[in-house]
Task: structure prediction
Amino acid sequence: MSGTRRMRATWRVWSLAAAIATALGVSSVAFVYFGMKAAGKPLTFTTALLAGLPDWYFWAALTPFVFWLGARIPIERRHWPRAAVLHLLAGGAVVLVELAVFTLFNHWFYYNPYAPAPAALGDAYVWNILRSFHYAFIIYWLLAAAGMAYRYQRDAVARQRDAAELSVRNAELESQLTRAQLEMLRAQLQPHFLFNALNTVAGLIRERRNEAATDVIAGLGALLRHALSSLDRDEIPLREELGVLESYLDVERARFRDRLRVHVDIEPAALEREVPSLILQPLVENAIRHGIANTPEGGEIWISARTRCEQLELEVRDSGSGFGLDTPWVADSSRLGLHNTRARLDRLYGDRHSFFVGNGEDGGARARILIPARP
Result:
């Protein structure tokens, strides 16, 4: 604690002690004044004031020091014997000093001229110790206990603040880690579809379908523009994601021509919902590669999106033969596109999402994602 803050804290303790001493002193003055009057030995108000008020102000003057001792030497479970001994010694010393000041004050002011001459100063001091030591010692412990309570409260606040700061730091580190993982997954995914698209171009060139290859390259350029525009965002509106997907489908239509038939059914309310960028492309790619590419007559793909309560459902189905029991990647998603899709959903939504890849009820393969429907 800086010197200025320490002075302010001491002043606050002193001010509070003075206010309490004034209240207790006034009640003591009233007790002395009216009590002596009722006993038939009336005192002047000045005499009652000198009898009832000064002792409380002596304690008010000592309060910051005793309060500091209580805060500096708290009685804690591990070191309570040592702290108790120190407070017994310090309390005894403080009480003896306070009683000495009180005795001197009475010796100089209280008895003269309002009472007979006092006894010897030493006898008066001993008498005050025998009469008032235990009461004064109780006052010391009350003030020390207030200092200890302040220490405990201050430490509790500091612990809560440190815990909150640690929680914030942990949350920031976790967020940074999650984002780094997402960036890594997306960095893997983009070269993945780029590699597949280039393979498509190479295949078309080998087939001497130069015009189709040119169309694929043009579509690939549009696809890359869409992909690069979402590099700094984990989520994009579904409307924008569908634009990316359409660029990808343009590439695949140039390759498969009439063999690829795509049906899109998007609920209007779903268009502005947030989805992970490039979340649909690997699902559609999987449907094309395993449901249509190996079928001479080609096939169909259905892409749908709808809101259900507070969730957004995305679904990709194909008309292929579906998955056999000997297709291990259906269970563990070990292929890159589906593996990254599952990993990205886990990072972004935790247990607030579901991801299913398997056979559809009417045949073919089906991929279904449920995520929170965030605008």
User: Anything to note?
Assistant: The chain has two domains: 3-168, 209-372. The chain has ten helices and seven strands. The two ends are 48 Å apart (CA to CA).
